[in-house]
Design brief:
By secondary structure, the chain is of the alpha+beta class. Helices cover 38% and strands 27% of the residues. It contains nine helices and 15 strands. The strands form two sheets. Strands 3, 4, 5, 6, 7, 8, 9, 10, 11, 12, 13, 14 and 15 form a 13-stranded mixed sheet that branches. Strand 1 and strand 2 form a beta hairpin. The C terminus is likely disordered.
């Protein structure tokens, strides 16, 4: 039995909760992973999984084995990559995760530029509006809007995502420009659900002063690009990330509303599993991506921070 291959299959199966998913991640067949797991259980003399109809869960011996081997195997992988005699080239694979709005417009471009510099790195980029479980989904690196919680991860703060109110000149000519936050009550409002409080309130900041307005949006969505498209169509006054509307502001398609006020910013982080030793490809992408994210108009960089285990 190839013990190293069996342990890799075991670790991936624990993290994914499925032999099929582990096989897909490892690029081998499902029967091959099943055979490795059976051989490992025979070698260990213990049952490593509780087998249920929908998922696999490690037994108590299985959990102990996972805790004992997943760190050392990651260290071995990182050590081998770091000493390869390849002239300092960065190679390997990266699994990246990020939000749709930032990913489509910005992260994708950063990935392409990174691969131009490091052509031997393959990237799997998943964009969706949820916080993925980095460990159990086998993700090397996530770009997250909002502080990550509840995982054994390291977080590097990139900066703040600025949000403002915007509208088309035609809408403002037709309906008038609001001069105070309370004027929004007389306007059609469009918003992403992330900026509204549970009671439907919108918080506007001016210096250190916060004003809460109970708005009744005509459109609420979790998709920032859908929101921007509706604002550009002249539907009303909308909340928007600066990085999504900077071109429309520059060419006059949109105008900033209540210029002295901002919507509460969201923190942007790069996060990666702390249990893993950073492979050269992961470390190289972190160093490459962070300054480019901070250079985006509408992302205001703050003091550098590295946070571990949610603290």
């Amino acid at each position: 039995m190839d013990l190293t291959a069996a342990l890799r299959a075991f670790i991936r199966t624990v993290e994914r909760g499925s032999v099929t998913a582990a096989a897909r991640d490892l690029g081998v067949s499902q029967p091959a992973v099943s055979k490795l797991l059976r051989n490992l259980e025979a070698h260990a003399g213990a049952r490593l999984f509780e087998r249920h109809s929908r998922a696999l869960r490690p037994t108590v011996p299985g959990a102990r084995l996972y805790d004992a081997v997943q760190g050392p195997l990651s260290a071995i992988d990182a050590a081998i990559e770091s000493v390869r005699d390849d002239g300092g080239a960065v190679r390997g694979s990266l699994r990246l995760h990020g939000p749709v709005c930032l990913g489509e417009r910005r992260v994708h471009a950063i990935v392409m530029a990174f691969q131009e510099r490091h052509p031997d790195v393959s990237v799997r980029l998943t964009l969706e509006n949820r916080h993925a479980d980095l460990v159990h989904e086998g993700i090397d690196l996530a770009i997250r809007a909002g502080r990550p919680t509840g995982e054994d991860i390291v977080m590097r703060r990139v900066g703040l995502i600025q949000r403002i109110l915007v509208a088309t000149p035609a809408y403002l000519d037709r309906c008038g420009a609001p001069r105070e936050p309370e004027c929004l009550l007389r306007h059609a409002v469009l918003a992403t659900d992330t900026v509204l409080g549970r009671d439907g309130s919108l918080t506007l900041l001016r210096g250190g002063e916060a004003t809460e307005i109970r708005v009744a949006p005509i459109l609420t969505t979790n998709n920032a690009q859908v929101l921007v498209d509706a604002i550009l169509a002249g539907r009303g006054v909308g909340t928007a990330q600066v990085q999504l509307v900077e071109e429309a502001l520059s060419d006059g398609r949109l105008v900033r509303v209540l210029r002295e006020h901002e919507i509460r910013s969201t923190e942007l982080y790069v996060a990666y599993p702390s249990a893993r030793f950073l492979r050269p490809a992961v470390r190289a992408f972190i160093d490459f991506a962070i300054p480019r994210l901070q250079a985006i108009r509408g992302i205001v960089s703050g003091p550098a921070q590295v946070l571990t285990d949610g603290h």
